[in-house]
């Protein structure tokens, strides 16, 4: 009976150990009031929270972060965002060779004071940032090109105004001056068409295109008005004057 009792004891211990292992591997989850899914805590164990000092490695950089022992890895990511500038969604935290989920508790995963964790930027985040940098570079390049065209259009618009003022005043302008100005404006229109713009740069491009079009239309109308202006012929009429009469001098005779 005693021997059987020992066998039963070993079986019971083995069963208990196996059950404990299964409980460790099967992580239960629960929903917090804010909607965040977190690892379910064992309500029968009351452990007072402590402050843990974690050593975080991020590439060649090293950080020491103080965090509540009952915090989650998601909350740790928020603290790391202030240090690294990485958004929580762009972070991956490795502890003991495994990536940890946002809802897992530090203490339930075995994190202790002065534990080491590895912070990695999500490769998808790196790719997104690279794409955004290229996009920003294209936008800045478009802004510079449009600004250059805008300055040229400003100068040409001043010449259009001067020609319009002359013709309105009845002064005929050489036609070649008008046609040359139209050609110069069309060159700026071609430059605008070659600029690849998006966002607010696209709006600026459209605005400058309308300015060029308006100047060309104005010159086309001025060309017609200029043809109707008759050249002013200035003639000089000389006035003739008669010489003054010669006064007769009376000579006085002396003996």
The percentage of residues in β strands lies in 5-15%
Shape: rod-shaped
Classify the secondary structure makeup into a structural class.
alpha+beta
Distance between the termini: 200 Å
- So how many helices? 5
What is CATH's topology name of the domain at 142-228? Answer: Methane Monooxygenase Hydroxylase, Chain G, domain 1
Output mean pLDDT.
81
Rg from Cα? 45 Å
Looking at CATH, the homologous superfamily of the domain at 142-228 is BAG domain
Quick one: biggest sheet? 5 strands, mixed
Report the helical percentage: 40-55%
Chain-wise SSE layout:
Elements: H1 2-25, E1 29-31, E2 37-39, E3 51-58, E4 61-68, H2 73-84, E5 91-95, E6 98-99, E7 116-121, H3 123-168, H4 175-193, H5 200-228
Parallel strand pairs: 3-7
Antiparallel strand pairs: 1-2, 3-4, 5-6, 5-7
Helix pairs in contact: 3-4, 3-5, 4-5
Pfam families: BAG, ubiquitin
Protein name: Ubiquitin-like domain-containing protein
Keywords: Chaperone
